[in-house]
Amino acid sequence: MGRLGEFIGFRLRRVQNLLSKDFASATRKYNLRSGLFSSLSLISSNPGISQNELSAAVGLDKSTFVQVIDELEKRGLAKREKSKTDRRRHALFVTDEGQIFLNELYEIMAKTESAALKQLSPSELSLLKALLDRMYEVL
Length: 139
Prior knowledge:
Keywords: DNA-binding, Transcription, Transcription regulation. It contains six helices and three strands, in the order ααβααββαα. It is mostly helical and 139 residues long. A three-stranded antiparallel sheet has the order 1-3-2. A hairpin with a 7-residue loop joins strand 2 and strand 3 (90-94). It is globular. The longest helix is centred in the last third of the chain and has 22 residues, at 96-117. Helix 2 crosses helix 3 (51-58) and helix 2 packs across helix 5 (96-117). The chain has helices at residues 8-26, 36-45, 51-58, 62-74, 96-117, 122-138; strands at 49-50, 78-82, 90-94. It has a single domain, classed as Arc Repressor Mutant, subunit A, CATH 1.10.10.10.
């Protein structure tokens, strides 16, 4: 890897690329667009989240992100409702069908990550998660 191997971003990206490739292959039949799975997951974890909050959390541009929400609604996976506290914003919720779909995607993701995660002990995995979270918070 030469000097490139000295950079954590490069090492993280190598692993992420392989995990993403495996997940994309395993979910090809669902025709997932970028941001759909993570958006649905975050809506499920934060019922009533606004589109602006969600686009910031996912890291997608607001104008692009509307298309993700439109697709989630079109597929019957999520719904927009007028906020009860602020008429200018929409609150997002996962539908029952969306939760079933999300659970299926979680199972697929667990399978695609299992080979890599088997290389780590439970304490190493816990440490890795903590270190990555700490790095993320700084950035």
